[in-house]
Write a structure and sequence with these properties.
Length: 241
């Protein structure tokens, strides 16, 4: 079965990489795997009587996967993981399609109450953004979103030769571990960070016009702000404007 370019499919063929990802999920009883593809990672996840639920957009793979894992605690859901709603505690894992990785991650980050941990393979540049620290060029509103509820870490890079067909980019595996405490926000926070990062090279004062900004923040760029400072600006200045 050939990979479908329009779905961003690059099937993992490196068993060592699959095993390293699966090890990050040790001790978990329920795993939701995004994009099982031909099951290279699924095979490593299905140990110790663990239950794995695969979310696969390509229904042509259903018969192949069901036959391959017949008799195992493996279940399939068809659909787009960017819209999947979680109803019970689960760890999320998978090799995400490059063209929809951010949308999928955003969907699950906002369901943090149900998800203590996530392990994803994504394009290296996306991984660098997910794990970026303030005062770096990679730190963006997507970094803020990912780090609101999770501690994020890049575990290792994966070369193009680990996939078939080979992608034109390097991939990275990233881990999300839910924070013990998180920021208390509402939907207005996301409108706020959209505006704050609307022009990343401009100052905070320029991006947040016509709202007033304290002098200590006014002349910084958005990427210079820590999460605590961004949260403060939203809560104390934006909310009270």
């Amino acid at each position: 079965m050939e990979a479908k370019k329009q779905l961003g499919q690059h099937f993992l063929i490196n068993e060592g990489v699959a095993l390293k990802i699966a090890k990050q999920c040790e001790g978990e009883s329920l795993i939701i795997e995004i994009g099982p593809g031909k099951g290279a990672l699924t095979e490593k996840l299905l140990v110790d009587n663990r239950t794995v639920i695969g979310v696969e957009l390509d229904r042509e793979l259903f018969g192949y996967l069901k036959e391959k894992f017949k008799g195992k605690n493996f279940y399939l859901i068809g659909g787009d993981a960017a819209h999947l709603k979680i109803k019970r505690k689960a760890v999320i894992c998978g090799n995400l399609p490059y063209n929809s990785a951010k949308a999928i991650i955003k969907n699950f980050v906002l369901q943090f109450d149900f998800i203590p941990k996530m392990v994803f393979m994504v394009q290296k540049e996306v991984a660098d953004t997910i794990t970026a620290k303030p005062q770096t060029k990679e730190f963006s509103k997507f970094s803020v979103l990912c780090q609101l509820y999770y501690d994020t870490a890049k575990l290792f890079n994966v070369s193009a030769g680990s996939f078939k067909p080979k992608p034109k980019v390097v991939s990275s595996v990233v881990k999300f571990k839910r924070k013990k405490s998180s920021y208390q926000i509402d939907n207005s926070f996301f409108k706020f960070i959209d505006k704050l990062f609307s022009y990343p090279r401009k100052t905070v004062k320029n991006n947040l016009k016509p709202f007033s900004v304290r002098e200590e923040f006014a002349h910084k760029r958005p990427s210079d702000l820590s999460l605590d400072e961004i949260y403060y600006l939203w809560r104390e200045e934006w909310q009270n404007s």
